[in-house]
């Protein structure tokens, strides 16, 4: 199920948060939304999820207007991982995991075990959510999203609370979802991760699409420097993917004299 966003506008109190946004997220691909703080990435993801009443424009999932779908229809088409996870709810991790299967009414024991293993949450299942660390909560909610098993997966900064190993494991699992044919749209601040795992990158700035395309087309030093108002250089990782880094002219020894 591809996603088509056409001429999307959304404002709050006359402040336009999304201004004429258009792009397509193809099935079988990872589309990354990147940009500085306040660019509109999370707002755009919420609009795609059908959680906002947009001012104008259209959002289509497999040709269906998101605004015309009821909550159950939406839940069977897209799974959503938000930035913030409520910590006061008295549910166990196992209960949160099983919420993911609610739209389908029937469990899937094999898939359940697969996502438990993928997210490494077996030992967390009996724990009450408020007792978990931020990273542990994130892994539980990642598992919930995977267990929902929808054709569209929407992820808002999924690796923000994860350590290095768990973040990389999650990104690989996300990539596998796309390789299986799902449509994945992910908000990322880690440009190196976006370059390594995304097929298509949409760069947002002040609520507008500043650029979009393949990682090698979009992640140039000039574009990134302009968007983030920072002097950056583009290097390559061992796989040949572009890596944007701040251009630093200091080292620990020179800082001692400051």
UniProtKB/TrEMBL annotation:
It holds the Pfam family ABC_tran. Keywords: ATP-binding, Nucleotide-binding, Translocase, Transport. It comes from the Bacteria. Gene3D superfamilies: P-loop containing nucleotide triphosphate hydrolases. InterPro entries: AAA+_ATPase (IPR003593), ABC_transporter-like_ATP-bd (IPR003439), P-loop_NTPase (IPR027417). SUPFAM superfamilies: P-loop containing nucleoside triphosphate hydrolases. Residues 3-231 form the ABC transporter domain. GO terms for molecular function: ATP binding; ATP hydrolysis activity. PROSITE patterns: ABC_TRANSPORTER_2. The keyword Translocase applies. PANTHER family: HEMIN IMPORT ATP-BINDING PROTEIN HMUV (PTHR42794). This is Heme ABC transporter ATP-binding protein. It comes from Corynebacterium urealyticum. The lineage of its organism: Bacteria, Bacillati, Actinomycetota, Actinomycetes, Mycobacteriales.
């Amino acid at each position: 199920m591809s996603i088509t966003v056409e001429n999307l506008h959304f404002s709050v109190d006359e402040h336009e948060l999304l201004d004429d946004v258009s792009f397509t997220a193809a099935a079988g691909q990872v589309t990354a939304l990147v940009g500085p703080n306040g660019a509109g990435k999370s707002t755009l993801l919420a609009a795609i999820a059908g959680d906002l009443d947009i001012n104008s424009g259209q959002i289509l999932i497999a040709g269906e207007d998101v605004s015309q779908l009821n909550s159950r229809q939406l839940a069977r088409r897209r799974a959503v991982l938000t930035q913030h996870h409520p910590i006061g709810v008295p549910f166990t991790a196992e209960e949160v995991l099983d919420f993911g299967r609610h739209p389908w009414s029937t469990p899937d024991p094999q898939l359940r075990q697969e996502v438990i293993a993928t997210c490494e949450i077996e030992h967390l299942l009996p724990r009450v959510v408020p007792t978990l660390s931020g990273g542990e909560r994130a892994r539980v909610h990642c598992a919930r999203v995977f267990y929902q098993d929808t054709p569209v997966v929407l992820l808002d900064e999924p690796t923000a609370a994860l350590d290095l190993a768990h973040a990389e494991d999650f990104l690989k699992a996300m990539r596998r979802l796309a390789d299986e044919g799902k449509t994945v749209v992910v908000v990322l601040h880690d440009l190196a991760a976006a370059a390594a795992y995304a097929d298509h990158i949409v760069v947002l700035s002040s609520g507008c699409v500043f650029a979009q395309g393949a990682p090698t087309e979009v992640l140039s030093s000039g574009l990134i420097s302009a968007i983030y108002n920072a002097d950056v250089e583009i290097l390559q990782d061992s796989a040949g993917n572009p890596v944007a880094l701040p251009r630093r002219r200091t080292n620990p020894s020179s800082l001692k004299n400051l």
